[in-house]
Design a protein that fits this description.
The complex is a heterodimer. Chain A is mostly helical. Chain A has ten helices and four strands; from the N terminus they run ααααβαααααβαββ. Chain A folds into two domains: 97 residues, Muramoyl-pentapeptide Carboxypeptidase, domain 1 (Orthogonal Bundle); 114 residues, Arc Repressor Mutant, subunit A (Orthogonal Bundle), CATH 1.10.10. Chain A is elongated, with a radius of gyration of 23 Å. Chain B is of the alpha+beta class. In chain B, strands 1, 2, 3, 4, 5, 6, 7, 8, 9, 10, 11, 12 and 13 form a 13-stranded mixed sheet that branches. Classes of the chains: A mainly alpha, B alpha+beta. Chains A and B meet through helix 4, strand 1, helix 6, helix 7 and helix 9 of A and helix 2, helix 3, strand 4, strand 5 and strand 6 of B.
């Protein structure tokens, strides 16, 4: 084989590969076709990733629309006022894409997701108060934000959350679990300023806490299993 | 015989494997120990050098003669105080926080920041402020000296980070060493770095925290300005709660007392099915309401839902409110209903709402900001709109303008001209003080997936 024909072959192969990649990419766009139980492909992977970003359990991100993915889609639809059919059509895709998009300037320039604080806060809420009433979840997020504002604590969400000795889910690694969707919702509500704990700086489970200092704090309110104190 | 040999060799193999396993685990643990020790050493040496830098900058800010130099050193002081608080939060600990060290460092940052803002406006610090700064500096020198001593101790003696009670079956090597050290040094010497820091914290607790105007410090609980004086009993509170949920669309729901709350908004908490509602004893007003009902199909746009919520508020007697900061979460929106007085938006007096997009019902209501800040304000601008406009840069394009009262750090407020301006493809909100024409605040508007957001 001459050098030229080898080159031509190589070019041909590269062309084919590029063509395949481009065609699969254009085919892969989420929203191009209706996805349902049994669908496979890169769009399903994108669907699973986006659902997981919002805290919906979809199982492994494998590009296969299985039972868990369907349950995630149904819950997403239920919690977002969409028809609950487990099918990923136009409305579901539009809502999912909108809520998982990037932040842009008023001129339309993308400036990133800007959601790392929400995510960390949601992880803490999820680990601390998953089984608590929703109000209690918002209150846990509010405690973190009240600490950020207080001069007696560090000044950022991550500094407050990772402060050694502050929260047990950090010490035992629970904080690394994906947050449940209600925790993300609660984190967002607290970040907007809602504080159902009325300015609390501490919370504890009275059945599990013997720490004298925390019992000595002035108590404000009990929500579910947690007492919130100042 | 054969069987015996088999067992012996199996055991020998197992023993070899477990020894190898133990050895590699031990190595790994040692690696982790070194990594975490390095991290701790680094945090502490960062803390020591940043605290020293903070003290130096604060000293320089006190002798700087030109406003520009003052501004520079006060800015550095403020920034460095934040960094030292961060360094401190990275040190190992068993219990949460060193509240009084944090408070002291934060107050230095807070005060130097508010002084720099004042200097920007052209006002030099007065003698009282100079005194406060001097007193802070004095205290900081003491704290810095103690930390420097600790740093020397850490290098020369074998001090541990935290005192950990060791389990009975494993006498702690570190703690034992620390204990013997403490014995040598005298009984009062703390045995760990953490204990020394806690001692410092306790010594600061005995000193009064600084007070100055414009402080954002939250050690004092604010007194709500808007609560009516009338005191209500449980029965009246129950009635108020019942009326509230009726006006939101619940006709036959019976609320039950579930708890009482204490603190600034001391009151009664009632619940029913998905509902939780709090009524304040003072004034009998609703402070918090949340309905956790499932959401129905989206029928309204975010804008329609916000309009519906404002209508509901009006029907409840909240006449003069507009919707701002609307965020669309899909099945529901979050928004602020802001009080408007004489065409001036009073941003501190707001009610935070969560509204469904199925029928526009209010499912979340937090009126604590309104009751905290609402009071009768006299809103007379000292400068004209034209004067205010002349303070803006020439190269910005004004898209909207109005008047507003905004919150400043701490519990202060400013009455301002509000401009939404456009420059280089981005929108900003700029606030020009309507009394002294200074540029009070700048906010950048970005569009998140949920709507416009101020940074």
């Amino acid at each position: 084989m001459s050098l030229n024909s080898r080159k031509a072959l190589l070019l041909g192969v590269i062309f084919l590969v590029v063509l395949l990649v481009v065609s699969s990419l254009s085919y892969a766009a989420l929203g191009d076709r209706l996805l349902a139980r049994g669908s496979r492909g890169p769009e399903v992977t994108e669907l699973q990733k986006r659902l997981q970003m919002l805290g919906y359990v979809v199982g492994p991100i494998d590009g296969i629309f299985g039972r868990q993915t369907e349950a995630g889609v149904r819950l997403f639809q239920k919690e977002h006022g969409l028809a609950v059919d487990g099918l990923v059509g136009k409305n579901t895709v539009r809502e999912l894409k909108r809520l998982t998009g990037q932040t842009v300037t008023t001129g339309g320039k993308a400036v990133g997701y800007k959601n790392s604080d929400v995510n960390l806060l949601a992880r803490l809420v999820s680990a601390e108060a998953k089984g608590e009433p929703y109000r209690g979840q918002v209150a846990v997020a509010a405690v973190v934000l009240n600490r950020v504002k207080s001069s007696q604590f560090p000044n950022s969400i991550s500094d407050v959350i990772y402060q050694p000795g502050a929260f047990s889910p950090v010490a035992n690694g629970q904080i690394w679990k994906e947050p449940v969707s209600s925790a993300i919702k609660a984190a967002n509500e607290a970040l907007a300023g809602t504080d159902p704990s009325y300015g609390a700086l501490f919370f504890f489970n009275p059945a599990k806490t013997t720490n004298k200092y925390i019992w000595s704090r002035p108590q404000i309110i009990q929500i579910g299993n947690h007492i919130f104190a100042r | 015989m054969r069987k015996k040999n088999f067992w012996i060799s199996t055991l020998a193999v197992l023993l070899t494997f477990s020894l190898l396993w133990g050895f590699s685990e031990n190595r790994r643990a040692a690696d982790f120990r070194i990594a975490s020790e390095n991290q701790n050493q680094r945090s502490f040496s960062d803390f020591v050098s940043n605290l020293d830098g903070l003290e130096t900058n604060l000293a320089k800010s006190r002798v700087a003669s030109t406003p520009l130099q003052q501004l520079y050193y006060l800015g550095q002081t403020s920034l460095q105080s934040e960094i030292t608080v961060k360094d401190l939060s990275l040190l190992p600990a068993e219990e949460v926080g060193l509240a009084y060290v944090d408070q002291f460092l934060n107050q230095i940052g807070d005060f130097s920041w508010s002084l720099s803002q004042q200097i920007v406006k052209g006002d030099q610090p007065d003698s009282k402020q100079e005194e406060t700064l001097a007193a802070m500096h004095d205290r900081l020198i003491d704290v810095n000296r103690k930390i420097q001593e600790l740093a020397v101790n850490l290098q020369t003696n074998n001090i541990v980070w935290v005192d950990k009670p060791s389990p009975p079956w494993m006498p702690g090597v570190k703690t034992a060493a620390a204990a013997s050290q403490a014995q040598e040094a005298g009984a009062d010497e703390p045995s760990s770095l953490r204990a020394s820091l806690e001692q410092l914290d306790a010594s600061l607790q005995k000193l009064p925290p600084f007070t100055y105007s414009g402080q954002t410090d939250t050690h004092a609980v604010p007194e709500p300005l808007g609560l009516p004086d009338l005191k209500v009993k449980e029965e009246q509170a129950h009635q108020a709660a019942q009326e509230f949920i009726k006006s939101i669309g619940y006709q036959n729901t019976d609320l039950k007392l579930s708890a009482t709350t204490s603190g600034v908004f001391e009151g009664y908490s009632f619940t029913a099915e998905n509902i939780s509602i709090d009524v304040c004893k003072r004034g009998g007003v609703i402070t918090f309401f949340r309905d956790e009902r499932p959401l129905g199909l989206q029928k309204l746009s975010a804008k329609q839902a916000a309009a519906k919520a404002v209508q509901t508020l009006q029907a409840m007697g909240w006449k003069s409110f507009i919707a701002t900061a609307v965020e669309d979460f899909g099945g529901y929106i979050q928004m602020d209903a802001v009080y408007v007085q004489d065409n001036v938006r009073i941003y501190p007096d707001k009610i935070r709402l969560v509204v469904t997009k199925d029928n526009g019902q209010i499912i979340g209501y937090d009126a604590t900001p309104y009751w905290l800040f609402h009071h009768q304000r006299t809103l007379k601008p000292q400068i004209t709109a034209k004067q205010a406009k002349s303070k803006l840069r020439q190269d910005v394009q004004i898209k909207e303008n109005g008047m507003a009262v905004i919150s400043l750090p701490g519990y202060a407020e400013a009455f301002c001209y509000e401009y939404r301006v456009h420059k280089d493809g981005e929108d900003y909100l700029i606030y020009i003080n309507a009394q002294d024409a200074t540029e009070e605040k700048i906010q950048r508007i970005v569009i998140t997936p949920r709507g416009e957001f101020l940074q």
